[in-house]
Amino acid sequence: MEHTTSELSELGTRVHLGPIDITVAVIYLIGIVAIGLLAAWRHKARQGAADEYFLAGKSLGWASIGLALFATNISTLHLVSFAQNGFDTGLLNGNFEWMAGFTLVMLGLFFAPFYIRSGISTLPDFLERRYNRTCRDCLAFVSVLTAVVIHIAFALLTGGIILEELLEIPMIYSLIVLCVLTGIYTIVGGLLAVVVTESIQTIVLLAGAALITWFAFWQLGGPADSPGGWNGWENLLSILQQEGEEQKLSMLRPHGDKDGMPWYAVLLGYPVLGIWYWCADQTIVQRVLGAKDEQHARQGPIFAGVLKILPVFLFVLPGLLAYALYVDGRLDLSMITVDEEVQSKGVYASMITELLPPGLRGILVAALMAALMSTVSGAMNSISTLVSYDLIKRFNPSVSDKSLVRSGRIAAGVALVLAVALVPALNMFESIYNGMASIISHVAPPITAVLVLGVFWRGSSSRAAATTLIGGSILGIGIFTINTFVPDGILNQLPGGFMMMAFTLCMLCVIGQILLSLMMPDVQRATTDGMPTGSDLAWETPLAALKIPGKTRLGDPRLLSAGLIVVMAILYWIFR
């Protein structure tokens, strides 16, 4: 049964936030906008230069890149939906976070060196150098569209849901305020302002998430009649055993699992989504393109991969703890219960109001706003870059940097307005995160196929790539439309759900592109700017990238990647 956020908020009348909480949230908002504007002001003399505005003058170090990658990725969508998923299915959806670590290693080791060496400003620019202009146009269109829908609109939706619960005001009002404040420093300051504020927001976000996880564990740690203690994990295990829900602690589920995401779907399907998201999405990769050198561009994603270990414990686990607290009668969810069924979209808001004392709730609201603002600002900067370089400069190569920056600012503002208008239409999914992932699973396959074959196989041809991008996108849109309007149809009955759908579509695209490349091979193009083009933008062998040394032994990206992979393997073994 679907219920709007306004219907849910009418179920309870308790006061959610007090004056102290609101004061903390307001101070945070003022502070983060001031910091963003200060960063812009300090580089005001160079703001007219396009590279300075869109790519931070290529001055970003590995720590800034890693923090910015993490902050741009983590939004209110993760906080709200992962808590919902933790309540409903346990740690299962944490696979989206831990599998990202492996994909970020691919970005750091295999893709980032090419991006830096080719001197590109956008990912569509890379596809034009590797293939042709048709590929550039296709990726530019998809990148702008997904930035508006995936990065901004979905983030605004989940942020609006929880802020409406906590502030007890219509969603649209809080979203307008946050969008205006985010737009001010993003549009004025460009990528540097975005990265500076994202680094701070990452710390606030993690601190707030750790806070609610701690309080949930503490509440579960004592006896039922006297909550509070150090036995939270033992009590969690006991409650799950009593309810017959031990599988909620498992990350890798068997075939036929009731939650519809068996281990093979994760293993085969996630790389299709992850390579598109982390290695081909302008909103994400733009932070890497702003690196001061190739070493930092390689190290930054690996640092982000380390940070991606945390969300399972800070975002997903709290939802599972909420389930245990609810079953044990320690968490009152009556305010989001309709017809004896908990509407799990509101679990995170309920945990904030039920578990945290006044004052600390304001810190969580600040963390939520940090997640929302960092994602929106990153996507806006990406959109402004794409429109400026892949649209304006393409048709007017002689355009001045000042005009280019102005066009980018206008594009970012228009995109923000469109995203706000899309928010009501996206509230139809039972699980918001799964709804977003489902959209990605039908968009990502052709892009992933074209990018992977383009980087790892020199025989991949431009005409084959263009045909795969266009044909694969049309196929994906058609299947998504059928799945949406015929929910009980055969396409929705695949084992593994949308993850296996993504894998199947990607394999079709890969096979098609290989066959077309063999039938329509490329002729090597001449370069006009001294930069590599065509098959020169592909590794000689798939493992050639591993021969690139690091500047220092301990800072060698290959060593750092190996360490991260070992840690991830151990974690998967523990939570198998």
Automatic annotation (TrEMBL):
Classification via Pfam families: SSF
Key word Transmembrane helix present: yes
PANTHER family: SODIUM_GLUCOSE COTRANSPORTER 4 (PTHR11819:SF195), SOLUTE CARRIER FAMILY 5 (PTHR11819)
Record keywords: Membrane, Transmembrane, Transmembrane helix
Similarity field: Belongs to the sodium:solute symporter (SSF) (TC 2.A.21) family.
InterPro entries recorded: Na/Glc_symporter_sf, Na/solute_symporter
Compartments it resides in: Membrane
Keyword Membrane: yes
Bilayer-spanning residue ranges: 20-41, 53-78, 98-117, 138-163, 169-196, 203-221, 261-280, 301-326, 363-389, 410-429, 435-457, 464-486, 498-518, 559-575
NCBIfam families: sss
Membrane-topology annotation of the record: Multi-pass membrane protein
Domain of life: Bacteria
Predominant localisation class: membrane
Family annotation (PROSITE patterns): NA_SOLUT_SYMP_3 (PS50283)
The name this protein goes by in its record: Sodium/solute symporter
